[in-house]
Amino acid sequence: MSDSLLIEIKDRIALITLNRPAARNALSSELLRSLPEAIVAADANDDVDVILLTGADPAFCAGLDLRELGSSGDNLAGGATETKAWTTPWPIVSKPVIGAVNGAAVTGGFEIALNCDFLIASEKAKFGDTHARVGLLPGWGLSVLLPQAVGIRRAREMSLTGNFMGAEEALAFGLVNRVVAHDDLIPVALSVAADIAGNDQRSVRALLGEYREVTGSIYDAGLVIEAANAREWNSRRGGFDPAEVEKRRAAIIERGRGMVD
User: Fold this and answer.
1) pLDDT category, 72, cuts 50, 70, 90?
2) Rg, the chain, Cα only
3) d(CA 133, CA 115)
C-alpha cells in the first residue's frame, strides 16, 4: 500500500487517512489508485464493520494535484483504467463509510466527502467546488450529491462561484451531521463508528443498502449523465487543457488558501 495512505484497524473500525499533508492531501495518481483499493480491502475484511475516512492535517483533501494535472494530466482519470470506468471515488461497498472532515475538502476532495455515507466535521472544515475555476467538470457525483445535501440553489451557487462553505454553515444546510472541536474530531467519529459496529451487522448492511436503493432512482441516472459529460469535457478533445491549468495554478492555490485561512 502507498505511503500516501495510512490504514489502522482497531475495534472493528478501519481508519483510513489520506497522508500527503505537505500537498494538502491532493490527489496524485498514486493516491487515486490506493484509496479505492484500501476501501475495497476494508469492505472485504471480516475484522471491519465500519470505515472511517479522514485526512492528515491541515486538510481533508485539496482535490486533484494541480502540479500533476497541469503537466501530464495523468491524475485526471480518477482511478479509471482502459477497462474500468469510475463514476465514484471507490466502488460500491456494503459497509458504512464515515467521513471525518478535518480541514478543507475541495473539488475532488469535496466529492470524496460527499460520497461518504455521512460526515462529521471539525470546526476547521471548509467545503468548496472549484471545478469551474480549474476548467473541469465533476465526475464523481458532485452534481447529484451536492444538491441532495444542500439544495439545488445553494449547490449552483457553490459550483458557479467556487466560494467555500464553512463548518457551521455546512451544518445549517445539512451537509454535515455535526461539528466538533478539531481535537475531538477523530475521537467523536470513532465513537459514532463504534455505535454502528455494536449493532447487528447484517441489519446495518441491509439497511444501508435499502437507503442506497431508495435514493438510487435519482442518483444512478444522474451519475450516468454526469459521467458522460465529464468524459467529454475533461478529455483533450473537450475543454480540458493542462497548459491552461498550469497557467492558473498559482492563482487557484492562492485564492483557495485565502478562503481557508
Assistant:
1) low
2) 17
3) 22
Query: Domain range holding 213?
Result: 5-184+197-260
pTM beyond 0.70: yes
Nearest-angstrom CA–CA distance, 248 and 69: 11
Note the pLDDT of residue 84.
41
CATH of the domain at 46: 3.90.226.10
Return the half-sphere exposure (C-beta side, CA atoms, 13 A cut-off) of residue 249: 16
DSSP type of residue 64: B
Q: Is residue 71 part of a domain?
A: yes
CB 43 within 8 A of CB 79: no
Give the pLDDT confidence of 103-135 residue by residue, as tens digits: 999 999 999 999 999 999 999 999 999 999 988
d(CA 261, CA 245): 23
Q: Give, in order, the Cα–Cα distances in Å from 131 to each of 57, 193, 234.
A: 23, 32, 11
Residue range 168-175: mean pLDDT, rounded: 98
Evaluate whether residue 191 is within a structural domain.
no
In a domain, 190, yes or no: no
Q: Which residues contact 112 (CB under 8 A, 6 or more apart)?
A: 35, 53, 60, 61, 89, 99, 105, 140
Cβ atoms of residues 29 and 75 within 8 Å: yes
CA-wise closest residue to 140 among 72, 64, 193, 73: 64
Please tell me the total count of domains within the chain: 1
Strands (E), 64-187: 97-101, 104-106, 118-122, 126-128, 165-166, 178-180
192 part of a folded domain? no
Q: Looking at residue 67, what is its pLDDT?
A: 81
Scanning the structure block, which residue is given the C-alpha cell 464515515? 98
Q: Which residue has the higher pLDDT, 138 or 2?
A: 138
pLDDT score of 81:
41
